[in-house]
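Hi everyone, sorry if this is the wrong subforum. Our group has a chain we'd like a structural model of before ordering constructs, and none of us has done structure prediction before. Sequence below.
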Amino acid sequence: MNAPSSTAARPGFGAILRGVWLLTWRGRWTWRGMGWPALALFILPALAYICAAPYHRESMELINEPEAHLQRVAHGLERGGFPLSAKQRADLEVVFNEEYARARKTETADLPSAEAARAQIEELNEWNRRLTERVEAILEPRQFARFQTSQKQLLKAQTREVNRPRWSSGEAFYRLLIDFYFLILFPFECVRSCGALIRDELQADTLGFLLTRPAPRFVIVLAKYISQVFWLYVHLLVQTLLLFAVGAWRDVPSVWGVLGWFLVAQTLAAPAWSALGLLLGLLTNRYVAVALVYGAVVEFGVGLIPTNIKILSLSRQLQTLLANNSTLQSIFDWSDVGVWTPVAALLVGTLLFLGGAAALFTFREYHQNAEMQK
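Answer:
Right subforum, don't worry. Here is the predicted structure as tokens:
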């Protein structure tokens, strides 16, 4: 009879990954576990639906109706001591109605705001030129001089209004998708969820149970990380498809053409942000606050510096990757374009963060009371 082996059986990585999945994540695939997360998935698409409301503004919408404009001109001339005669008023009424009707035949297309503003200013200037030429033939010289002064003030005010920042429906959708969801909400969710992987075990006092299993520490933390990233992939894919479906419903330009590059960037970004969250969660229980400081300093600070140091910013790498799509490049005015450099930078960042987290969990002892007091 053979003597029992003194060496404890060590399960393979696949068995460890399966055990972690069964213990922590399989419970989410239930009606109770998926109820609120499934409902929350529709909050952002609902906001996108509101933001991407069709927006078509007539070129002359900013200017008063012809009757009101004519009344303003007549009142100004009367106050200046140059009242209009009945014939002059009748002739001006014909001119104003015709020029307003002509201007309203064109609409501002759903273009990026800068292009739409330039087009509308050109239309305003052309409308003013035609109107002024026709009014000059009707008014006396002193009346016309006063009209010109009033018209210059009106045109200046309307030009200032046109130049006020204003997004089209397509721009509003993409700003929500990229600026709010992809560069703020999505990283925060990855960092928050992966930062809690070990912290939740400490809070529940179950970390000791995991560490008594016959598996190396770095394998345990890697298995938990992979399980969490897989869950995030499922969650984020559903969220992304809902957002783009709303964009298609609202007739956002080139929405399906953007989807491919967006999914590529999201696939690379989720492991990187999650590895960062895991590392911060192992460093401190205030990982959310540290993540916010990191975002302000590195992502929104270093990433805006026009030197090679910007390569440290994950957000900057993601922008470079997304800039390969012409629609996003024109809307956000991104100048850096590339594929392999941002892909390599994101992969290297993921490995560095994950390697640091694995090393920290391997060599550092975690005790519930001490960690909860930090």
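For your construct planning: The radius of gyration is 31 Å. The CA atoms of residues 115 and 243 lie 26 Å apart.
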